[in-house]
């Protein structure tokens, strides 16, 4: 019974450390604004949008904050309204003129009737709202995996010593590298297929596809997501390599005294 419990704890610990490595990559792309800002600055297609590059970059950052962080609809709508006001002042007749919207509901009603190149339509906002619980689940997974990994490693250290802890760390790192190598190969061969498969896990078909010139897509073009995937991949692989390195050190036999 004791051996069975020890084996189960090791399996849980390996899974928790592996999940932590994956979640660390998620945290790297979802919490700080810098990746979103840099990738949007690089890839947002201002030439196919009625808005300037600076406006698209700012909208991408505020949209990321709405979807993954503060979930502040007022801030997102204020940004879109400000962009449209600038475009209208420059003579764009299709922009939503800022008539001093009294509240979010008034902006929402105005945006519902506007061209999708200028606003986040109800469908686009619905998709961002669908992402929000998935984003929260990612943060929960990071916290839970941290607690489980630490508890499992402490248990393994107490019952089997440093070599057992090292074995868990090496095993987790190898699992992550093998899995992400497969995903990376899939991304290289067919990124669109991987992107679609990932979305199909969480969202209903048809709820996450939009016109190429819609505001949502010009804020977050396909190249943006390739860059985000690369940051996630690199961060997770570095965490896995670190896990393997530390594990290998712990697995070495202590020198004879």
TrEMBL record:
Any single Pfam family the record assigns to this protein: Lit
Keyword Transmembrane: yes
Top-rank lineage group of the source organism: Bacteria
Sequence intervals crossing the membrane: 7-29, 131-156, 168-188, 224-250
Protein keywords: Membrane, Transmembrane, Transmembrane helix
Protein name (record): DUF1461 domain-containing protein
Native organism: Xiamenia xianingshaonis
């Amino acid at each position: 019974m004791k051996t069975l419990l020890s084996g189960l704890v090791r399996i849980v610990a390996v899974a928790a450390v592996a999940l932590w490595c994956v979640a660390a990559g998620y945290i790297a792309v979802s919490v700080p604004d810098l990746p979103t800002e840099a990738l949007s600055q690089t890839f947002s297609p201002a030439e196919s949008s009625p808005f300037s590059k600076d406006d698209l970059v700012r909208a991408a950052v505020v949209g990321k904050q709405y979807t993954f962080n503060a979930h502040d609809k007022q801030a997102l709508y204020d940004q879109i309204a400000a962009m449209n006001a600038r475009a209208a002042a420059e003579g764009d007749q299709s922009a939503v003129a800022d008539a001093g919207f009294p509240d979010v509901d008034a902006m929402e009603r105005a945006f519902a009737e506007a061209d999708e190149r200028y606003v986040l339509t109800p469908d686009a906002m619905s998709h961002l709202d669908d992402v929000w619980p998935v984003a929260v689940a990612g943060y929960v997974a990071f916290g839970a995996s941290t607690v489980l990994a630490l508890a499992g490693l402490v248990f393994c250290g107490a019952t089997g010593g440093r070599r057992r802890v090292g074995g868990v760390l090496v095993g987790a790192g190898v699992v992550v590298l093998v899995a992400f190598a497969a995903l990376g190969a899939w991304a290289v061969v067919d990124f669109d297929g991987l992107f679609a498969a990932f979305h199909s896990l969480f969202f209903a078909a048809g709820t996450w596809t939009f016109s190429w010139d819609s505001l949502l897509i010009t804020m977050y073009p396909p190249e943006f997501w390739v860059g985000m995937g690369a940051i996630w991949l690199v961060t997770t692989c570095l965490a896995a390599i670190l896990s393997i390195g530390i594990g290998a050190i712990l697995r070495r036999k202590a020198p004879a005294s």
